[in-house]
Amino acid sequence: MARQDLPVVTSRALALVATVLMATTACSAPQVGTGGKSGGQDMDTRSSAAPSASASLPIEKFALTAQESHTVERAKVLLANECLRGFGLDYRIPEPSPLVVESSRRYGIADREVAHDHGYHLPPQAGQADAAKQPTEAQKAILFGTNREGEQQTTSSDGRTIPPGGCYGDAEVQLNGGPLPESDIAVAATIDKESFKRSLDDKRVGQAFREWSTCVERHGYRYQDPMASVSDRAFDTEEPTQRERAVALADMDCKTEVGLLKTWGAVETEIQTRMVKNKSSTLNRLRSFQKRKMSNADEVIKRLSN
Amino acid sequence: MLFVRKALVTASVAISAVASAFVAASPASASVWTDSSSSTSCDSQCLVLFYNTGYAGSHTRFSSTGTGSEGIRDLAAYTFLSSGSGQGMSLKNHAASAKARIWSVDSSVTIYYNSGYAGPCDKLHTNERPAAYKLSKTYNNNASVLFRSAKVSQGCVNFS
Lengths: 306, 160
What we know:
heterodimer; B: globular; disordered N terminus; signal (chain B); Lipoprotein (chain A)
């Protein structure tokens, strides 16, 4: 489901969203993102933290989506390159490569195709940073504002002032439009982590784990829960073995059979909804910051691209 | 191709093994190696995990070649190497802060709550030397680490 931009988040709206989320059934096909204002690209929206195909977790309404983060990155690169030009440097950061999205591993393996092809291993990454396009040490001092030892560089070799964080760091500062709301971010991050922790103690999740474990045993494997199977040391190999792929497939099929992802997601959603409600003014303030940042990014892209 | 660091200790040796200054990499897949330096002046990519917040206490540095995806699937086999509070403790679930050197704008290092690169995660990537004064979702809940050299979004919730 494409992430909706909510103008004002009230606790009632959140409660409604939670109800809808719990009633939603998993979609069978990947969904196309809305593309966003900056020209979109087709994107499997399973970039959400929640592996359940359709629902994202409540805290994600106070976070940047993968597409939004990518937009911010594009703007950052444009600003940084403008700054580099100002220093008379030839070097430019290359345009960020297209967004690649993999399904979340919050609940272990959650993508049957990946399980089939790669077991518990991560899919091999598509592109790779080109070593030849990397800046020199002198260029990096201006680009990042530090030397190789991590010491801040405040002046360029021809006497110009380097902003803190260099051109790249300064681009982020400009997009932030002010200081980073660190404590608000910490509140949101705590919810992301705490709900996961508490979900592990929830009776419904425990029950689902037991059912999953029974199912997996029918396939011939012994694991207490999906965290045990994804972290099995036997799979610490360079390439996934046939057995690993078989276990990962059984894991996925059993998750589907007992509805584990849905149950786990619903429990976390319930926990997060409560926590979000408790911190609604902090989170709304965080959301305002994020919206300003994204609007700054859109403006920069409009102004500086092509 | 995904290179995975093999566990250093053999089955017969206890996990909380000798806190030696430099742990050598196994020849087959020497793509992530550890030492006790706290410097992020490494050749390509490195992550230093500290026992205390604010980059204090004992620490261990993980370095990668910076190509492909490379990681440590389970931090249980590693300990805090340098002198300082927490030296000798298991790295797993005991890290409070982190510093990294990420050599390209597409690269990142992700710390995961669970082994096998699973669970909630903290992704460090915003600039050359990203740092977490206090780890966010993986504070004292860090079980695996993954270096990437290409831009991939995998559901690590991003609040900034």
